[in-house]
Amino acid sequence: MREVLILGGGTAGTMMVNKLSKALAPDKFNLTIVDKDETHYYQPGFLFIPFGIYKKEDVIKPKRKFFPKNVNVVVSEIDLIEPDKNSVKLSNGDVLSYDFLVIATGTEIRPDEIEGMTEELWYKSIFDFYTIDGALALENYLKKWDGGKLVLNIAEMPIKCPVAPLEFLFLADDYFKKIGIRDSVEIIFATPLDAAFTKPIAAAELGEFLDKKNINLVTEFNIGRVDNVEKKIVSWDEREVEFDLLVTIPTNMGIEAIERSGMGDELNFIPTNKHTLQSENWENIFVIGDATDLPSSKAGSVAHFESDILLENLISATKGEPLTARFDGHANCFIESGDGKGLLIDFNYETEPLPGKFPIPGIGPFSLLKETRMNHFGKVGFRWLYWNMLIKGRELPMESQMSMAGKYIPENQQKESKKLHL
Ligand SMILES: Cc1cc2nc3c(=O)[nH]c(=O)nc-3n(C[C@H](O)[C@H](O)[C@H](O)COP(=O)(O)OP(=O)(O)OC[C@H]3O[C@@H](n4cnc5c(N)ncnc54)[C@H](O)[C@@H]3O)c2cc1C
User: Fold this and answer.
1) How many domains does the chain have?
2) For atom 48 of ligand 1, which residue has the closest CA?
3) Which among 16, 17, 36, 133 is the best mutation to test ligand 1's pocket, defined by most ligand atoms within 8 Å of the CB?
4) What are 344-358's pLDDT values in tens digits?
5) How far is the CA of 36 from the centre of ligand 1 (A)?
6) Is residue 233 part of a domain?
7) Using a 6 Å cutoff on CB, does residue 342 contact ligand 1?
């Protein structure tokens, strides 16, 4: 029997365990999945909790409900990976050995990386919404808040779901309007980027949304510290932004066990071949989802597209065959824009988000890079799709590779797009 071990039973690990349990012959392979937690969190739902749209119950389910019956499930913290010994040490004292390893341990937020972030004001006037605790604490705070300066700050890139901060801002604008205090709230977005988003065409579009919603954009703001006394964030080049309420997207890092194991870069992300998803350093290790160092977005949709590629390549590896499946960096994200509307973006390593129709060219029903009510329904429907199809590893009517069908390059961007090799 050969051992296939999956580390992490979140979005990517759960998809992989379902796909592998169907694809690997049970008389030849033992499949084991390890996670520290019994609860699966639907992280895209964290966005809606501060505004009372989702409750905690809407975003949690038991992990075991999604693991197939024929796999070994181990609940323990991963302590150390020893890739040269093909083994993994767990905090419960067990040592698991493997022939093939899939790492799907995601990212965690590290507010402790920023001076002053976790001091007096943490969870009093400073909150995150990338964790369930942060999102719930912020919901409680917002219920009593009567206005002031709301600053949303991204500490550094990359972060998971890079559109989530923008969605938070759009929903905040909507929320304060609905409860009648928008005039008493100044909303500021302080980002290390030079625009609203990472990709130029989408950044221009999303920047207009910020203007329209009277949200002030502060660019190239690289946070150095939080001043808890004067309630301000200070950048490395000593620019200051005052706040009454700070919503932070702290540094996102791979887990500490990756650092302890000497397998990651400076942010603990694992060097991974951007096309085959094989580790750059060990042939029998594959990496998927947020744990990789790939230049793709860190998103559940990306993990989903990667899962098809990883399945094919891992099976080839078990047969000693070349890895022929290639991941193209495909990402697909609904962006909630407030007032019951949303946008959709679809892109990959080479092609940035473009306008058009998706998934059926010319028809849709979703519109790319355009605000529509149908896109909002897509965002809302994603939760059902996630619990019932995506993490169960079921086939979806979407190709892993991005398609140009249904997309077009806007006239005013054609010159620019030539520079971007579109
Ligand atoms: C606010 C927010 C909004 C988002 N919105 C979207 C969206 O709209 N669309 C989208 O596609 N994506 C979205 N995402 C991103 C998406 O949730 C992640 O990209 C996705 O979950 C990544 O999957 P993963 O398996 O790599 O990591 P995770 O799902 O985070 O899984 C990692 C797993 O590893 C386990 N683990 C970690 N450390 C250890 C350890 N030491 N020992 C044992 N187990 C460990 C964890 O318990 C977890 O189960 C959003 C994320 C956030 C936070």
Assistant:
1) 3
2) 10
3) 36
4) 999 999 998 999 999
5) 13
6) yes
7) no
Whether 255 lines ligand 1, by a CB cut-off of 6 Å, is yes
Once rounded to an integer, what is the mean pLDDT over residues 290-317?
97
Ligand 1 pocket, residue 105 CB under 6 Å? yes
C-beta separation of 271 from 279 below 8 A: yes
Q: What does the pLDDT read at residue 414?
A: 63
Rounded CA-CA distance 151/237 in Å is 18
The whole-angstrom separation of Cα 346 and Cα 369 is 9
Residue 296 Cα to ligand 1 middle (Å): 15
Domain at 220, CATH number: 3.50.50.60
Ligand 1 centre to CA of 297 (Å) is 12
pLDDT score of 155: 98
Judge if the beta carbon of residue 299 lies within 6 A of ligand 1.
yes
CA–CA gap between residue 316 and residue 228 (Å, rounded): 54
Last residue in a domain, options 222, 252, 282: 252
The DSSP string of 61-123 is EEGGGGS-TTSEEEES-EEEEETTTTEEEETTS-EEE-SEEEE---EEEEGGGSBTTTSTTBT
Residue type, 389: M
For 85, counting Cβ atoms within 10 Å of its Cβ (0-12 exposed, 13-18 middle, 19+ buried), the class is exposed
Tokens matching residue 189:
């977005």
CA distance 413 to 21: 46
Peptide bond into 365 cis (omega under 30): yes
**pLDDT 10s digits, 61-112:** 999 999 999 999 999 999 999 999 999 999 999 999 999 999 999 999 999 9
How high is the pLDDT of residue 290?
98
Identify any residues that bridge with 152 across adjacent strands, giving them in sequence order. 189, 247
How many Å lie between the centroid of ligand 1 and the Cα of residue 107?
7
Q: What is the pTM of this model?
A: 0.96
The finding on whether 12 has its CB within 6 A of some atom of ligand 1 is yes
CA–centroid distance, 408 to ligand 1, in Å, is 32
Burial of 194 (0-12, 13-18, 19+ CB in 10 A): exposed
Ligand 1 center–CA 58 separation, angstroms: 16
Contact 13 CB / ligand 1 (< 6 Å) = yes
- Please check the confidence at residue 371 and state whether its pLDDT lies above 70: yes
Q: Cis peptide before 359, with omega less than 30 degrees from 0? A: yes
Q: What is the pLDDT of residue 204?
A: 87
Which residues constitute the domain of residue 87?
A: 2-107+254-318
Judgement on whether residues 212 and 161 belong to the same structural domain of the protein: yes
